[in-house]
Amino acid sequence: MTSVTINGRTVEVEPGTTILDAARAIGEWIPTLCFDERQDPFGACRVCMVGVEGAPAPLPACTTQVRDGMVVDTRDATARRVAGAVVELVLSELPEPPASHTELAAVARQLGVSGTRWPGTVHERDHDDRHPYLALRHELCISCGRCVRACDEVQGTFALTATGRGFDANVAAGLDQGFKDSACVSCGACADTCPTGAIAELSLLDLAPEPLHEVTT
Q1: What pLDDT digit, counting tens, does each position of 51-63 carry?
Q2: In this structure, are 98 and 163 located in the same domain?
Q3: Under a CB-based contact definition with an 8 Å cutoff, are residues 46 and 83 in contact?
């Protein structure tokens, strides 16, 4: 077993356990956006950064394995500042705030982020409603990759594809012919994992609560 101390609490975990999993085992919260426990850790969003004693800079909790004697501070000021800045940048690209029930909104609330200091160009509203059960709202996509990996790793369908780079990064169904004419089997794994509501079940859209707050621009 490997001994690691997290926020002053020592826990014994199996070798190869990540900091994120060790923290969750003792009820310590670490924010995430690109992480889904059903998928392989991706380490793309940099929201799960934590302080580690002896490390020159914060480390991503979802991909960093614990080592014996490691001391972790999930509330490290620099790590939290990085996480908050990432969430602010994500919010700055959205044409509307995330609905209060979404994972993005929950992370923003827990990090104390209510808007963005960097207003600028936002994504134009672009809805794909060609699927009989699912809606793809491109403007809410934050390119976390979870929907693509859910389709590939969990369902094995490979119906979704990551497209573009930078501000133009997004997802498409098949060769952008829409869900209906793609290899989609309507399993809903993409909607289940999406942290922003960019992919959602059509039957649930009218039931979704209103956004919790406005994004400052």
Answers
A1: 999 999 999 999 9
A2: no
A3: yes
Among 77, 98, 119, give the residue marking a domain's end. Answer: 119
Please tell me the distance from the alpha carbon of residue 188 to that of residue 169, in angstroms, as a whole number: 22
pTM over 0.85: yes
The candidate with the shortest Cα–Cα distance to 74, out of 56, 54, 60, is 60
Closest CA to 143 of 114, 129, 157, 164: 164
How far apart are alpha carbons 5 and 18 in whole angstroms?
Answer: 13
* CATH classification at residue 64: 3.10.20.740
> Does residue 52 sit in the same domain as residue 106?
yes
Structural domain that includes position 52 = 1-119
Q: For 25-56, what is each residue's pLDDT tens digit?
A: 999 999 999 999 999 898 889 999 999 999 99
Rounded to an integer, what distance in angstroms lies between the CA atom of residue 122 and that of residue 71?
A: 40
180 phi, psi to nearest 5 deg: -55, -40
Enumerate the β-bridge partners of residue 6.
Answer: 9, 72
